[in-house]
Prior knowledge:
Elements: H1 3-14, H2 18-28, H3 67-73, E1 75-76, E2 84-99, E3 110-125, E4 130-142, E5 153-168, E6 171-180, E7 202-210, E8 216-224, E9 241-251, E10 256-272, E11 275-292, E12 295-312, E13 321-335, E14 344-352, E15 362-363, E16 387-399, E17 402-412, E18 420-422, E19 426-428, E20 438-450, E21 455-466, H4 468-471, E22 479-488
Parallel strand pairs: 13-15
Antiparallel strand pairs: 1-2, 2-3, 2-22, 3-4, 4-5, 5-6, 6-7, 7-8, 8-9, 9-10, 10-11, 11-12, 12-13, 13-14, 14-16, 16-17, 17-20, 18-19, 20-21, 21-22
Amino acid sequence: MFTSFLRFNSKCARSRAGALCATAMFVWLFIPHSANAQYFSLGKGTYPLEFYDIDFTYLADPDKRNGILDTLHYIPLGITSDSYLSLGGELREQWWHQVDESHGLKAPVDNAYDLQRLVADAYLHFDSHFAIFGQVARADAFDKINYSTTDESRGRLQQGFFEVKESLASTDFTARLGRQEIMLGSGRFVWVNDSSNIRTTHDGARVHATLEDGATIDVVATRPVTPTYDAFDDWSSHSGSFGAVYASEPFLQNQFHADQYYFYRRSPGTQIASLTGNDERNTVGGRVWGQFGGVKFDSDFAYQYGTFDQTSPANAKVADKTVSAFGTSTRVLYSFENVPLQPGVQFQTSYFSGSDNPKSHTIGTFSAPFPRPTLLNYAGLETLQNVFEAYPAFLFDPTADLVLRFGPQALWRANVNDAVYVSRATPLTKTLNDHARFIGTNLTWTAQWRVTPNVTVFGEYLHEISGRAINLAGGSGADVGVVQVDFNF
């Protein structure tokens, strides 16, 4: 079971990206250590998902600047008393080894490779109301077979937008126009796809409002950008359209939150089972989340309706199909905070509907606008379509900066007449030939070590025990190992 993981680590040591990894490790020695590891949702450490969500205004006081990074984060411009420039970035290395990827039903069957991402940020504040943010990125894939445009780009404008902040009465508004990444709510259904080498980005507008009682409202209208290999060559490359209204309101002194949302997504060339078509669907849903004592909870539920215009197999007499789908996911964690190693028990269950029959007039396969495949596992072995999941896990926090997690994840098809789907929402059409329900069990070991406030090391090893839905289709269990080093500054 551990052979793939050990070979993967050997590959990491010999890779071209290994030199940069060693450089990052050298940098760690000069940065102070942090505390307060998060283990409910493994993430980027103390750095938020977006650089522009960090408030560096406190560095206007020179006495609070410590080291070269604070000097980069706050560069006074002298235009106004509150004009300054913030510079930052990210270097991320990922080493993967996958054996029998996609349950052994698609090539390649054995692939060890490196993914490298380098990002530079510039956040120019003219004053407290007007700013410009720019982010450029380069992504490289070494030794990956069949790499895609989400793996490699010779250079791209990842984000670039104008920002206006204003207060009206007791409501604070932030408006952004231009290229930007969009995450809403839990990120289950609208996510930036951070596990990929190139994150999902949009061209369009977003308005965020914060009310006096802490409630928030987001309104989004964008065209998702399709990345390209060539440098700065995706200006007119888009994939459909996206719109959203997302509202969140706190209750019980911020212990409980209730969200409501509406998403619109038009996606051309969508694959559902053996069909391909232009998918136009609306998602209405809600989320409840919060914390009471040692219990954290987070639950999404959504219904989808719309139309599916079939383009393949070609048949001019086929009318548009109706979309009717449902999806929900819940995660609950109880942590024993006063016990040695601070153990926790986590349970996650998800249900995403599938279609009953390709010849039916109804598409029942749930399809999130921009799903978070790492919701199920970081390898993204399965995705949020036609699947029912039960995932108990045990967590240990031996130090303030280290978290360990292990759990068996059992997966079934929600509808045996629909395909098993893998990451990138790709149907494994061979699974349409059998009607077994059980997909398999993933034994998953995960670790995250926050070495410093700027550096996070993440690792996961997944061993799949395949079920009848995979075996009858001619597939087998998969092994996936990943080690990721993320250096933010």
